[in-house]
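Supplementary Methods, section 5.1.

A reviewer requested that the exact input to the structure prediction be made available. We therefore reproduce it here, unchanged from the version used in the analyses.
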Amino acid sequence: MSQGNSAVTAQVQAPAASAGVEGTASDDHERTACTVLQVLERVSGKWAIGILLECAQATRRFTELERSVKGISRRMLTLTLRNLERDGLLVRTVHPTVPPKVEYTATPMAVELYESLASLAMWAERHRSAIADARSEYDRKATAPTA
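The structure derived from this sequence is encoded token-by-token as follows.
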């Protein structure tokens, strides 16, 4: 997703820059658009999606997430959990035990996001064949010799 973000960000920033007026509705739109891009970038990563899918189903402990999100390092899990908590998508609860028991629970906002991700996944599944066919057709035309 990050490849396309710079182009989208440039498109979002261009109208505000061309207006030449600060403190306008254009500036508010730019701040809002950048925030939307940042959120989409944050939740579209494979680690964030895996964590959100797990936590939307039930409260999870750190070690459960570490086992269930395949391929994630302990450091990346920690960073991703921290970012999701900062964005208001997870609630971190530390129980005063030895060793400390830390649990992560999806917020209502994260559950709503989960529902959107599930809809997107169902859409992708429904259209998987059509997308594969379109790619094959495109590739066939792109590699066909021109007369």
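The two ends are 36 Å apart (CA to CA). These observations are discussed further in the main text.
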